[in-house]
Amino acid sequence: MGNPMIEKSFHAIYGTAPEVVVRAPGRVNLIGEHTDYNDGFVLPAAIDRSIGFAGRKRADRLVRVHSIDFDGSVEFNLEDIQKDGQNSWSNYIRGVSKYLEEDGHRLAGADIVFGGNVPRESGLSSSAAVEVGTAAFWKNLLHLDVDPVYLVKLSRKAENQFVGVPCGIMDQFISALGRENHALFLDCRDLTYRHVPLRDDVKIVVCNSGVKRALAQSEYEVRLKQCRQAVAQIASTGLAVKSLRDVEPADLEAARSVLSGILFRRARHVVTENHRVLEAVKVLESGDIERFGQLMNASHESLRDDYEVSSKELDVLVELAWKQPGVLGARMTGAGFGGCTVNLVRQDAAEAFAEAVRRGYEDTLGLKAEIYICKASQGALST
Ligand code: GLA
Question: Helices marked H in the chain — which ranges?
């Protein structure tokens, strides 16, 4: 939903124009999956689907929020921000507001409307968009003099500690700092980053399996623990490693005997994925888009076989994609267990690709996929 719609909704509900309107995009990850919480590398892009926020200050300490997508409203007092067990959609906004207050940024009461077109529970980071949108809203409304990366970290803290989902930092980072027509190469250890230009003759096509990520959270936690266990066991061989980021393929081979089969495969995914991201950035910058696509394909195989976070539906979408003309690479994107695939497709083949995958998915599984031909977009806090 574009900003004019959000402004109209605000006007319809509160009877005046908003003081501030912001938008925070969803994201797709091109490569670097399940690496962020291992201090590794990622290469996501913000997409042209976003959550918009419109609002104005109030004279008191009350925050009233209307969600267009949930067609519901909540109120909370900035003096005492509690989790809402019923309207859980409001917890992202509550969490960000609470941690800003706790850090000494005195917020004002506000009337807010928000909504957008990032599909929920589809692996395109609608929750990160709500968190980052809330942070950007407060920043603009109150002219907070804060660093965007501080707001990224605070948004992630809201998700980890207030909402209770143990995600890494990738989604909030890209929703805040994405750039039009660029991907963002992020080192999740020291948070240094640079934007990498995308070619305009190649399209990012996202295929939504329509399957909600049912197992995603519990299996995500299991993977997180397995990665920590693998690090502890590799360290027990005398190697100085703090996270899987520090492990080279040769180290992993050398430590094979101390790792169970599962832990070895989990670690191998992360170790090889980090290498794939580094090579992917290099070849993207040198214009070798074919190699970039091969790395995406290898990433999918590793996520499917070693990390085991794909699903039947995602595999069908990816295998259909691999057969289409003009496809450079295809893989699942995000946490897995449902959600979306990301595909790089030559521009002149993109429409036919979308049609063929949609048809093939329905013929194979009797399910309907939604397909979005995306444009890499600006983040909510990018300048
Ligand atoms: C989810 C998390 C991210 C990241 C991905 C997997 O999107 O929110 O932090 O871990 O899964 O790459």
Answer: 3-14, 91-102, 126-142, 148-157, 170-177, 216-235, 249-254, 261-286, 289-305, 312-322, 350-365
